[in-house]
């Protein structure tokens, strides 16, 4: 690694512990970071959290979610898509209906102290 100017205190800790190269190598993979970013983005909106809490109670169709949340179809569709991309919910086709349910990951994210 090229030489960089680091404050003495930080350099001392790095030298006695793992060093800059090892520190950089301990970063999670880009894939993992992208997945975490998607999850945190999905959880960053109060409407999406309301949807998750509803689906934690039971699987629901869009019409019931819409009735509880009171938003336009296009906004609801957007929020459901974000939650699906974050792997927090899944939709199962049942005839002409799509029934949404929370995933294990979605439930885990709603649990205090999740890991």
List unreliable stretches of 5+ residues.
none
Mean pLDDT: 90
Q: What would you call the structural class? A: alpha+beta
| Percentage of residues in DSSP E strands | 5-15%
The total count of strands amounts to 3
Kindly give the count of domains.
Answer: 2
- What name is given to the CATH topology of the largest domain? Arc Repressor Mutant, subunit A
- End-to-end Cα distance, whole Å, is 33 Å
Work out the helicity level.
55-70%
Considering the protein shown, what is the CATH homologous superfamily of the largest domain? Winged helix-like DNA-binding domain superfamily/Winged helix DNA-binding domain
Side-by-side strand order of the widest sheet: 1-3-2
Assembly type of the shown chains? single chain
Order of helices and strands: HHHHEHHEEH
Pfam family, one: HTH_5
Keywords: DNA-binding, Transcription, Transcription regulation
InterPro entries: ArsR-like_HTH, HTH_ArsR_DNA-bd_dom, Metal_resp_trans_reg, WH-like_DNA-bd_sf, WH_DNA-bd_sf
Protein name: ArsR family transcriptional regulator
Structural account:
It comes from Methanospirillum lacunae. Keywords: DNA-binding, Transcription, Transcription regulation. Pfam families: HTH_5. The model has no long low-confidence stretch (mean pLDDT 90). The protein has helices at 8-16, 19-25, 30-43, 46-57, 62-69, 73-85, 104-110; strands spanning 60-61, 89-94, 97-102. The protein has a three-stranded antiparallel sheet with strand order 1-3-2. Helix 3 runs antiparallel to helix 6 and helix 4 (46-57) crosses helix 6. It is built from seven helices and three strands, in the order ααααβααββα. The chain is α+β, with helices and mostly antiparallel strands and 115 residues long. It folds into two domains: 1-44, no CATH class; 45-114, Orthogonal Bundle (Arc Repressor Mutant, subunit A), CATH 1.10.10. The protein is 61% helix and 12% strand. The radius of gyration is 21 Å and the shape is elongated.
């Amino acid at each position: 690694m090229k030489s960089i100017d680091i404050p003495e205190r930080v350099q001392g800790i790095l030298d006695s512990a793992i060093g800059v190269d090892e520190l950089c190598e301990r970063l999670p993979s880009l894939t993992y970071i992208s997945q975490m970013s998607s999850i945190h983005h999905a959880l960053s909106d109060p409407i999406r959290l309301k949807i998750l809490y509803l689906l934690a109670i039971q699987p629901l169709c869009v019409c019931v979610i819409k009735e509880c949340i009171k938003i336009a179809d296009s906004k609801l569709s957007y929020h459901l898509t974000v939650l699906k991309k974050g792997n927090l919910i899944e939709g199962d086709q049942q005839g002409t209906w799509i029934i949404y349910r929370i995933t294990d990951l979605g439930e885990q994210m709603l649990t205090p102290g999740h890991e």
